[in-house]
Every structure is written in structure tokens, then in C-alpha cells.
Amino acid sequence: MKLDTTVLASGNLASPRRIIAGLLAQLTMLQVDTAAARAIFTNAGLPARALAEPDFPVSLQQELEVLAALVAQLPAGTSPIRALFAALPDMGIENLGVVGMAMRHAATALDVLKVPLAYPELTMGHCRLVVRRREEAAVFVFSMDRPTLRDGDDALTERLMQYCVVLDLTNTLRNLEDVVGGGQPPLGVTLPYPRPPDWERLGGALNFPVEFGAAEASIAYPAAFDGTPPPQANPILFKMYTTIADKLSLMLAEEVTLQERVLRWLWAYTPPPGRAEVAELLAMSERNLTRQLAAEGTSFSSLLARVQAERAGNLLRSPALSVAEIGYRLGYTEPAAFTRAFTRWTGQSPLRWRRAHLEGTPPGDRQ
After folding, report:
1. Range 3-6, long-range pairs (CB < 8 A, 24+ positions)
2. Alpha helix locations (H) across the chain?
3. How many CA atoms lie within 13 Å of 214's alpha carbon, on the beta-carbon side?
4. Distance separating alpha carbons of residues 292 and 307, to the nearest angstrom
5. Which of 11, 137, 161, 222 has the most CB atoms lying inside 10 A of its own CB?
């Protein structure tokens, strides 16, 4: 007999536009200290100050580079899968901020599913999500495109994908339980990965079965995702939180100066976007961008130089990276072009700047 299969919702949580709050939550969950976090961020092309700015924009690629570094630093014998299922008690709808509150107060269970898909840049996921009704269950299926890591081998890429898929799955599981579950566990979870050697360390912490080596990553949930209102449905609160989410999805643009908005987008991509791309991200013409920056006493080229100089300095602090590699990361195809640009920014060549830093006296600190 053919099963009754209906798609209830589908979308991509892996938005290229996102804020850094999700990464900061991962740092806390994995107990990464500030010094290690700073090194990971700067190696990914992010400023250290982003550690203190939860609304700082990052690209999906930068987030994946940071997560790969975090996964690589997991203690020996700890699998990403076991680590995330062990962290389930620390997850929950509150971690999604206004998106989570909008989900909690959505009018129907079906609307609950649509909220995170409407705001992927705030949900900060990594997978495509398809929700299907199969007989009496709603099945949430997660899949992820294979990423390309700058310095990662196949083994690290596989561990990163496991981490990202299971992270999205476990977060979804907790969110559903908080909003519509009423304390009822899922029917089961399937994962397309081998059973990790440390899985038994979870003991009896889970109240649902997990099947390994399956065809897909999924959650089967016994709730009826239809027109049934969740326990805390409230149209006024739902409207309030979605209105806030609309504003946050614009990166709180109305609360910062234009040059700060430009700087944030320049930091969000490596190499940074050009003038036309930034203007498009800010929903304005290049001419208007140039005029408004001039009114603030600056220019696109000076802001770009500021970001590139700071980013280059962060990377030059790592002896493992050659000057040519640093120039390539910053968008220069020829090392000589990067050297000329860096000398123009700082008054010193990259090698001289690096030697001074490694000697313990950064160039900017000399009297």
C-alpha cells in the first residue's frame, strides 16, 4: 500500500546572510576559552571584536571555517554526534531569540514550521529542511551540501558535516518539544552515519531511539502539524516578535551609521565584496552609497583599506601562513600587489611588520 506522503514545509536554513550569535553559542557549549576563540576568529578573517557583538554579520563560509576549527579541537575520543546529543538539555527555543518566541506564539502548528524557514539568517542553520507527513507522523529530513574548507582534508570535512547536520537536527528536536511537544518525545531519530564509538557514554540520557547507518538524517514526530494551535498561540505576541525579526533580518541597519554597516559587510566576506556588491546588500545605488559615505567623512576605499589592513595584521600574526597565502586570502592574485597595498596601509612591508610583531614589539606600539 502506498504511504500518504505530503510535504508540509521545505526550505534552506543555510542562508549566506547570518549573524555571529550562533557561533558564540557554540563557543559556550564547547567551552572554548577566549584566547582560543580569538585565534579561531581571526584565522577565519573575522575581527576579534566580533566576540562581543552578537549581531555581527558573518558569511556562511566563515561560519563553516570556524566550526571546522571547533570540531578539530574536540577532545580525543569525542565524536561530534555524541557531543551534540549530550548537549540537548542546554538547547531550547529560547536560544533562537525572537525567532523562537515567534515560533512559540504562532497561530498553528504548521505556522511554527514556517517561522524559522522565513528567517534563516536569524535561525543560523546549515541544512535544507523538508517536513513530510507520513501516516500519523511528521518527518523532518535534513540534508547539507558538502562544503569546501580552505585548510580541511576529507576527514575534517566529514566531521564538520556530521556536526552541522546533527546540530540542526538536535536544535530542531528541542525547539519542537518546547513549542508543540507537550513533553512527548519523538518517535525516533535516524542518522546516515556509523554509530560513534563513544555513543554508549550517553547512557540512558535519551528517551527515544536513534538509528545509525540510515538513508537520511531525520526526526519522526507524532504531532499533527496542521491547523491545531500550539499551547501558547497568541496572535498579538506573534506579530510583535515577527516584526522584531523583520528588523533584525536587516542587521539592525537603522541603529548604526552607514560606515559601520559597510564595515560589517566588508568583514563578513573574505575576500571582501566590492563597492557594487555592498551597495546591493544595503539596498542602495553605488552613487548614493558614495554620497552618503562622503557626508559621514569617509569613503568606500578608505573603509576597505581599514578592514584589509586589520585582517592582514591578524593573519600575519600566524607564522604558519606565508605572505603569498595571506595576500591570496585577501583577494590578491599576485604577492607583489599585496605587498604594495600593505605597505601603503601601514608604512611597512608585510615581512617587516611580521618580524617586528614576532619580536614582541608590534609596529604600532613603537615610540
Report:
1. 3/134, 3/135, 4/133, 4/134, 4/135, 5/132, 5/133, 5/134, 6/132, 6/133
2. 21-29, 34-43, 60-72, 80-86, 97-104, 109-118, 120-123, 154-176, 235-249, 258-268, 275-281, 286-295, 300-316, 323-329, 335-346, 350-358
3. 15
4. 19
5. 161
Residue 148, pLDDT above cutoff 80: yes
- pTM, 2 dp: 0.76
Bridge partner residues of 98 (DSSP): none
Q: How far are the Cα atoms of 47, 159, 185, 295, 352 from residue 227, in angstroms, in the given order? A: 45, 38, 21, 52, 66
CB 6 within 8 A of CB 76: no
What is the grid cell recorded at 143? Answer: 540534508
Distances (CA, A) of 41 to 24, 123, 161, 323: 11, 20, 20, 19
Which triple of cell numbers denotes residue 185?
518525545
pLDDT at 363 over 50: no
Reply yes or no: is the peptide bond before residue 271 cis, omega within 30 of 0: yes
* Sheet with 217-221, edge to edge strand ranges: 5-12, 128-134, 137-143, 217-221, 188-191, 210-212
User: Residue 273 phi/psi, 5° resolution?
Assistant: -70, 160
Question: Helices 350-358 and 300-316: crossing angle, nearest 10°?
Answer: 50
Query: Contact at 8 Å (CB) between 82 and 40?
Result: no
Alpha-carbon span 317 to 129, nearest angstrom: 40
Q: How far is CA 366 from the centre of its chain?
A: 38
* Domains assigned to the chain: 5-245 (no CATH), 256-360 (1.10.10.60)
**Is it the case that residue 352 has pLDDT exceeding 70?**
yes
* 88, 103 contact by CB (below 8 A): no
Question: What does the alpha-carbon distance between residue 247 and residue 253 come to, in Å, rounded to a whole number?
Answer: 8
Phi and psi (nearest 5°) for 188? 170, 165
Q: Radius of gyration over alpha carbons of the chain, in Å?
A: 23
179-197: average pLDDT:
86
Between CA 147 and CA 149 the distance in angstroms is: 6
- Determine the Cα angle at 272 with ends 268 and 278, to 5°: 80
